[in-house]
Design brief:
TIM Barrel; Lyase, Ornithine Decarboxylase, Chain A, domain 1; 18 strands
């Protein structure tokens, strides 16, 4: 069977390599939650899940739609850390066996009632807002929450967690330390009300690299962007480049639809944003902003053809981009084009593309259209 016109290639080898790299810098007791929310950062949720399941202790996702999809391929314990509608709590907890987040008393009582009806104890993790200012219990509400929680007999409070705000900033640890202190205080309050030996997690990829040292069997880390071979910041990359190597997992592949010659003084694309200054040979590539190739790459990026960089000319259209291939010979329709990843000795990284848009590498991969097929490369 021939490969599709455009698709995302996922390297199973690199995914496993990245997990093992992080295992090498963590305590052997530390548990890893493989973060596969947002379609596995654009890489393909279930495709990634089937590869990494033997190598992680948990999956972490965001919502019930992701949980429904995941349960088609895996029954592994899964942390559902985003919002689930009240009307969906019963399905998520009792039928799909998700471990849900709680951050208010209302949700605590709802899940306790669900547990009572089904004669099973839904597993939950308590989210503490330790100076992040997002989802979670405020510190002043923690005592009241656990005082009420001790009377909820039909629910299993398994874990407590928070999330760092800027721990990738290696120049100033003060806010991270403030967060750590608050989280430790929340754990002590939980213990006061009898919730001992809880699973705890505070660190995503940045925290693993910046903070996690003396972890134990109750510690979970949430491995997200690093799982996919991307660094959370340039500072952390510089700090750890001699200790671990991360390998990108995604290649974004398309093929040339047409090759044609344009004369001098000829416009390219909508808005007349590029006018040729000399005879130019162009390649038409059937990918555009509907596929996740941002309009900000108009006249501002490159693709790879024959292992060589070719400038994107004119505006990125909904389904099409144009590249200058004048410097190449014998380029033909259906030749391979790389929008992200390696071809020959050249490579276009998510970090490179992110800088062009003044954003982060996470956004580059996460916004790739889920309609593009994900094809796993085993070797």
């Amino acid at each position: 069977m021939n490969p599709p016109l455009s698709y995302i290639e996922i390297s199973a080898k690199n995914l496993i390599h990245n997990i093992r790299s992080f295992r090498s810098i963590l305590s052997s007791q530390t548990k890893i939650a493989g973060v596969i929310k947002a379609n596995a950062y654009g890489h393909g949720q279930n495709e990634v899940a089937t590869i990494i399941e033997p190598y992680v202790d948990y999956f972490q996702i965001d919502d019930i739609e992701e949980l429904r999809m995941l349960r088609k391929v895996s029954q592994k314990e899964t942390l559902v850390l985003g919002y689930v509608l009240k009307s969906d709590l019963e399905e998520a907890a009792a039928e799909l066996n998700g471990t849900l987040v709680i951050y208010d008393i209302e949700r605590l009582e709802l899940l306790n009632e669900i547990g009572k009806r089904h004669n099973k104890k839904p597993k939950v993790h308590i989210k503490i807002d330790a100076h992040l200012g997002r989802q979670g219990l405020m510190m002043e509400d923690v005592e009241d929450f656990f005082e009420k929680a001790k009377n909820c007999e039909h629910i299993s409070i398994e874990g407590i967690y928070s999330h760092f705000a800027n721990i990738e900033d290696t120049s100033d640890f003060s806010h991270a330390q403030k967060q750590i202190d608050s989280f430790e205080n929340a754990k002590k309050i939980a213990e006061k009300y009898g919730f001992t030996n809880l699973l705890t997690h505070q660190s995503a990829t940045s925290g693993i690299l910046s903070y996690e040292k003396d972890t134990n069997a109750n510690t979970i880390v949430r491995l997200g962007v690093g799982l996919y071979g991307m660094w959370p910041s340039e500072e952390l990359q510089k700090k750890y480049k001699d200790r671990i190597e991360l390998k990108p997992v995604m290649r974004w592949i398309s093929h040339i639809a047409q090759v044609k010659n344009l004369p001098e003084n000829h416009s390219v694309g909508y808005g007349l944003t590029h006018i040729t200054t000399k005879p130019t040979t162009i390649a038409i590539i059937p990918q555009g902003y509907s596929d996740g190739y941002d309009r900000g790459f108009s006249n501002n990026s490159e693709v790879l053809i024959q292992g060589s960089r070719c400038k994107v000319l004119g505006r990125v259209s909904m389904n099409m981009i144009v590249a200058d291939r004048s410097h190449l010979k014998n380029v033909q329709p259906e030749d391979e084009v790389i929008l992200l990843g390696k071809q020959g000795d050249e490579e276009i990284t998510a970090e490179e593309l992110a800088k062009k848009l003044d954003t982060i590498n996470y956004e580059i991969t996460t916004r790739v259209s889920p309609l593009l097929p994900r094809i796993i490369k085993e070797d």
